[in-house]
Amino acid sequence: MTVMSAPMTFAVPSLCSPHAVSSGTPTDHAGAAACCLLEIDRVSLRFGGIKALNDVSFDIRSGEIRAIIGPNGAGKTSMLNCINGFYRPSSGHIVFEGVRRTHTRPSIAARGGIARTFQNVALFKGMTVLDNIMTGRALKIRSGILKQLIRFGPALSEEIEHRRKVEEIIEFLEIQAIRKTPVGKLPYGLQKRVELGRALAMEPRLLLLDEPMAGMNLEEKEDMSRFIVEVNRTYRTTITLIEHDIGVVMNLSDRIVVLDHGCKIADGTPAEIKSNQQVIEAYLGVGG
Amino acid sequence: MFYREAGHFKDNYRADMATFPIREDRIGIITLLLIALVAIPLVHLAGIPPFAGDYFFNAILIPFLILAMAAIGLNLLAGYCGQISLGAGAFMGVGAYAAYNIAIRIPEMPLVLTFLLAGAVSALAGLAFGFPSLRIKGLYLAVATLAAQFFLDWAFLRMAWITNYSPSGSVSAPPLVFAGWHADTPVERYLVVLVFTIVVAWGASNLVRGNLGRQWMAIRDMDIAAEIIGIRPIQSKLTAFAISSFVLGLAGALWAFANLRSWEPYAFSIDRSFQLLFIVIIGGLGSIIGCFLGAAFILLLPLIVDAVPRWLSIPVPAGAGSNITLVVFGALILLTLIFEPHGLARIWGIAKHKLRRWPFPY
After folding, report:
1. Same domain, B169 and B313
2. Which of residues 13-32 of B touch A (CB under 8 A)?
3. B310 is a domain residue
4. Distance set, CA B50 to CA B154, B187, B192, B203, B297 (Å)
5. CB-based contacts of A60, cutoff 8 Å, min separation 6
6. What pLDDT is attached to residue B322?
7. Do B166 and B47 fall into the same domain?
8. Domain CATH code at residue B177
9. Sheet holding A50-61, edge to edge
10. Which of A12, A81, A205, B6 is the most exposed place for a label (fewest CB within 10 A)?
11. How far is the C-alpha of A30 from the C-alpha of A232, rounded, in Å?
12. Hey, is the C-beta of B341 within 8 angstroms of any chain A C-beta?
């Protein structure tokens, strides 16, 4: 894997062309709809006069690794926030598993099977690694308050059942040795891994990763890439990730969508993106 | 130093998730329970000081246990769910007056049921005053709970039916009778309070280790991240308010029936709320054992500070004594918080850690 710095050359006018160059994406939505897990349909997001997203459309097929790239401030994180319900698109809509969403909240999106990690680690600092990942199973635990109060019989068996699942994830992420360490005491790279574990504990259908490799060294990036690929292969989890390390993105993803100033400027396979003139101008730079 | 975790190998999750995973800890807690439940009453009967008279039970053990229980109630909300409340004393009051009203209006009701109902009434009050927490956080929420304190203080004083139209506003609790057994002597009342406290501490420790406790801590540590894994903040915060107030109400009922036995609205004023908050902060936010340590600290320290000059036969001018106690007490609270902001529970943990590694501290 080559770590490549991405020199930013902002040669693009701030206004988007109404029809973004879309290289290679099948335009017949009817055909794509069958395997399409999530569809973003002309989503715009405005904060006052600022347009964070402008008429962006793309789809995420089930089972694929989809990357969203673009220069800083392109609207990548805003896009994720729309997908998991933090923001409500000002116009356009999002179709998840064939259901068109009008109004949603993060907790409802989570119930629908959308999990997420954050750019800045958002773990529960005072809790251990084990508890953090166990919390990821909150939605799956059925025992009521009274049963939890007594913590005997069925409630305890259920707790143990979930513990077993969590231990599988801990083993998968190779963090057995730190399972009882409070996450606040862990180094950054491990915290990122724990956060991935917490998202995996939800057994999501769509996993959103916001810069999973930011601030990591080469080895940590390799580990994280391996986990992402393995999650995708073993659990068949659809993954959407934002990442600035172009080498990683090109290697990992099946398809890439490129945003710039809130507009989609390209969408396609890594090879197509690499050779797309507009992407090179906006983001990759010459010599990439 | 005496025992270590090393060598305790768990081969199943059940054993690893036990309340006290280490065998020596289990032996320790059982010994402690036996001392509290059997040895102390026996020593009292045998007439060995300081357990001989009533003073030790009335002035120290009973208030200590009830305050520890109330602190557990507040800790569930403030320590585990991160919602600072300044209305804890008022919710104790709700429990006390609810129990009083149920007991005098439905005398045939078993007292345990009365106490539980009092807790439930207090839980409803907590739920009602917990609604602001859905919009506001931190210090602003603390101010909102202050409103609960002032409103309930006013209600205890002005709504005459609450005190059964007692002209002075002071009321007397009916005797403590459980299925024909009269708990009249201090030792008997101590046992009643002890049993309730053990059950509450056990239940609370189960709750905070379970799904609900994890949800509370998730809300406390990072509410946005809690929401993206599907936790509903509204539901979690309100259950925290309800359960916390339930425990506080139960503690309030016991405070009234087993400790004070006749009381005025002032017993549940803001001073009580502050006292509980201090217990929780000094004992350790988010720790059950911290509640007991904090209650012991708050309750015993003034007595000790008071007694030290007497032991050393230093003459203290009359009148200055109580003021000096306050000054020293305040200074000790400050020092504790400066040296260990995470409270006595953390000091306890560090001490255990140090002892475990002794004599090789690395």
Report:
1. yes
2. 13-14, 17
3. yes
4. 40, 13, 20, 31, 19
5. A36, A37, A38, A39, A66, A206, A238, A240
6. 74
7. no
8. 1.10.3470
9. A50-61, A36-47, A91-96, A99-101
10. B6
11. 25
12. no
B273–A contact, CB cutoff 8 A: no
**Contacts of A175 by beta carbon, 8 Å cutoff, 6+ apart:** A129, A190, A193, A194, A197
**Does the pLDDT of residue B49 top 80, yes or no?**
no
ipTM over 0.90: no
Contact A207, A229 (CB under 8 A): no
Q: What is the Cα–Cα distance from B57 to B36, expressed in whole angstroms? A: 12
Q: Is residue B47 located within the same domain as residue B134?
A: no
Note whether residue B185 is domain-resident: yes
Which structural domain, as residue segments, surrounds residue B322? 54-357
Q: What value does the mean pLDDT take over residues B310-332?
A: 78
Pairing of strands A91-96, A99-101: antiparallel
Residue with tokens 């946005």: B224
Residue B2 confidence class, pLDDT cut points 50, 70, 90:
low
Integer angstrom CA distances of residue B29 from B81, B202, B297, B326: 27, 12, 20, 34
Residue B38 class from Cβ within 10 Å (0-12 exposed, 13-18 middle, 19+ buried)? exposed
**B44, B106: one domain:** no
Domains and CATH numbers, chain A: 1-106+237-288 (3.40.50.300)
Q: Which helix (H) or strand (E) holds A115?
A: strand A114-117
pLDDT at B22: 81
Same domain, B36 and B61: no
Provide the mean pLDDT of chain B.
89
Contacts of B311 (CB under 8 A, 6+ apart): none
Residue A215, pLDDT score: 87
Q: What is the pLDDT of residue B328?
A: 82
Asked if A201 and A110 count as a contact pair (C-beta separation under 8 A), the reply is: no
Question: Domain check: are B37 and B149 in the same one?
Answer: no
Measured CA to CA in angstroms, residue B298 lies from A194, B61, B329 at distances of 39, 13, 9
For chain B, how many structural domains are there in total? 2
Identify whether residues B289 and B165 lie together within a single domain.
yes
CB < 8 Å to A77, chain B:
none
Query: Are B33 and B154 members of one domain?
Result: no
Tokens found for residue B308:
């030290």
Q: Best mutation site among A148, A150, A165, A202 for testing chain B: the one with the most B CBs within 10 Å?
A: A148
